[in-house]
# Entry
Amino acid sequence: MKRLSLFIAAVACATLCSSPTFAAGPVKIGLVTTLSGPAGYTGEDVRDGFQLAVDEEGGKLGGVPVNVLVEDDGLKPAQGREIADRFLQQDKAQIITGPVFSNVMGAVVPDVEAAGAIYISPNAGSSAFAGANCNKNVFVVSFQNDSANIPAGEYANQHKYKNMVLLAPDYVAGHDMISGFKMRYSGQSQEILPKLGQSDYSAEIARIRSINPDAIFYFLPGGDGITFLKQYAASGLKIPLLATIFSLDERILSAVGSDASGMTLAGHYNIDFPNKTNLQFVKAFEAKYHRTPTLYAADAYDTAHLIGSALKAAGGDDTKLDAIRAALKKADFSSVRGSFAFGPNQYPIQTWYEMKVQPGPGGKDVIVTKNVLLKDFGDPFAKMCKM
Amino acid sequence: MRRANIALALTALALVALPIVATLSRQPFWISVATELVIDALAVTALDFIVGYGGMVSLGHAAFFAIGAYTVAFASTSGHNSAPLNWALAVFVSALFAAGVGAVSVRTSGVFFIMITLAFAQMVYFLIAGVKALGGDDGLSMTARDVMPGIDLANPVIYYFVVLAILAAFVLLSQRAIGARFGTVVRAAKQSERRAIALGFDVDRYRWLAFTLSGAVTGLAGALFADYQRIATPDMATWLQSGDLLVMLILGGAATLLGPVFGAIAFGVLRVALVGVTDHWMLVLGAILILVVLAGKRGLAGLIVGPDA
Amino acid sequence: MQLFIEQTINAIQLGVMLFLIASGLTLIFGIMNVINLAQGSLYMIGAFTAATAAAHGAPFIAALAFGAVCGCLASVVFEVVLVRRLYARDHLDHVLVTFGVILIVNEAVAMIWGRSPLFMATPPALAGSVNLLGVPYPAYRLVVIAIGLVVAGALYLTIGKTRLGMLIRAGATHRDLVEALGVNVSLLFTAVFAIGGFLAGIAGAAVGPILSVSVGMGEQVLITTFVVIVVGGLGSIRGAFIASLLVAAIDTFGRAYIPGLLEHLFSDTTAENLGSALSSIAIYVFMAAVLIWRPRGLFPIATR
# Structure
């Protein structure tokens, strides 16, 4: 009987002993991102990059005190949606950010839109909200997924590649990356679509060998990228590799040693960008976290500053959503990428660069920014947005 | 009054009173959380039927959950949004699949059974994730919940009570079946297969039936979840999700009346509580799981209610 | 033809690696009737420790040995602390406890090494390609095959020709008798776990240079390994060897040829989508087919 009454007491307490949240106090920002599993390092960088900006201002953004609520979506869209719902309904957060993966973004955005709150993406750039379904409450700070590959296509044309192999995992983002590349690339191509999370690319590499293309464009994020690069380097094939920085971020590079040497990348951010904001960011990030920031951290840092600029303009009141939206659109903050602006669909307009992987001063390979591929480039979906 | 009856009454009371308490405490979000827990409890009840009572460890039940969810999501996004029809369809499709898998699986036992159920679940996962019409990795997202004539399912409180009623119905049905000849044969086969066969029972057929029913009800849980969260994604079908269901079962107590409910609640509460404490909450969860298993299989139900849980 | 030769060698390499993990698993199940989902975690520990050793300057063989020893030690600790309590329990308990171990080990590795994948270099001497029947093939992969075959041979000799092996086999089928003869069966079982951990550790260390050494790499290989031991027959090393090669062949050739075959029937992208899905499930279809034909696997050991 005693155990039973303890149980009742516990249940009763759990239901009654929590206080309702008040509207005053620091502005709550809900950050739901992928912190576990093999891709967990991307979410870690998003969280840490964002938090760095907050810490630099002593717990504030744009002079406004903020409370960043961080949770793990486990790369499960339903879980991301559930967490976002909780941030919106229970914590009364009006700004939701964080998802790295487009499938989580796809699940979270509709609920944020329905609640009339604001969604700011530090990474995922699904085309679903870039065109006809654009929404005044959705802002993407990083890039648009498909069009991030157009600069790579531009490079391929410039170097007169006539016949290419396009390699990406067989899932929605993989297909988007390939179709984005083909938006600009004007030569012939053959697609090879391995499974996500595959551990052995020998079959794919053998097919590439028999096709013998001018170059290979591939999209393989995270661990898949590492595995592929290692195996490709060991295969002895010398066909040039072309990719975006999503397939070779700083962490992947540190895990492949010299196997990526000579690769060409197209990207919107690199740690060697010479502007003052970036120099400061890289130094501060390395000092605090003892590792090199990736593009995930950099874009999240920009996201935090963007939010700060908007909160400042709204006088720190996150119920003034119209003011916040207007300020967000202005994007009046210093970006680590140098120049930054939003297009009419509230996805970025930014410059894309050609980068090369080559030996650095310490002997280890580094990514070096070379030329501009596309200056102040937006995305082709913008014209379908009627905002 | 027996402890078991008191526990049952109190649990039922708590579940029914929760929306009132939540609204009074100005925490309406709790109703959403509770809805999900009740749906999980339904899936675990179905799983308990074959694992707890039947001794057949299935690592593939997540597949039935996913099939139920996708049936509803697909029907709904194709323009058919009648909840009773979609849910019935989900049960039907899951039952069909479970019957097929069961036909091949129940003839095996032990680790072979585990592996075959796992293999079929993997097949479902890869097919779901690979087919473009099912949304691939993005899954299928529904814009609105399905509708039921006369009942406003979009209202979270109403949806909660609908789900709760379904859980109650199946818990009662399950208990009836366990006590009846059908359940007795299944339990007898768990204890000693040879004896059951010697007594003249076609053990394989009873097991097949139990497996099919279990799969069908799990599919129903998946359907209810799809309408709750308005989404169906491939990660619902992985063996790790099947593992989660087993964890809930063991936390709550296998082969008990209230075990599935306690287990679903415990797992949900644990997860939320641990996430706030440490990033590495899965380590703590793993440790707790091991301790609970080694301590004895009656779980929370055994702890709270005692031997006649 | 070139593709075929290359894929055959790839299949052998994958098969040999699967065998190293599967052999430990099948021994543990066959002899002690324990389902060990944590075998993949031992593989991961082998990879991480070997990569760390290599990063600190250890020569390749030393790193390999270090990975094997760490896998072995982890397995022994695991057996003594946890598995001992599971011998008398049913399969559900095995599944749950070892599932809990997977969760713990994954997080522990993330806590120690962080969530970034680790780098492990291919030893420079083995980094080039070798000309094999006209096909350039990565030399390191051939070395991996060699390592696997050597270990497999050593395992075969140990189990089949030594006293320890005989005791293990006897302990599997007649535990009471062996105990009555004065043999410490519990120590024997620990020895089996030690062997299993050593094998999984070597496998992890060996594949470190060619795969991504990251948290969760164990789960990716675990299911395939279970398919192998089920197809091969629980408890049978010979079965595990043959099944490893068969499963590896189906997986490798499936991925290499199924999309191409489908291209003749459907359009390009449909073929790729369907081909990818079909080749993913090929090994499961194969397993189901084998079980329908031979419900206890291809080479089941005699029942106790």
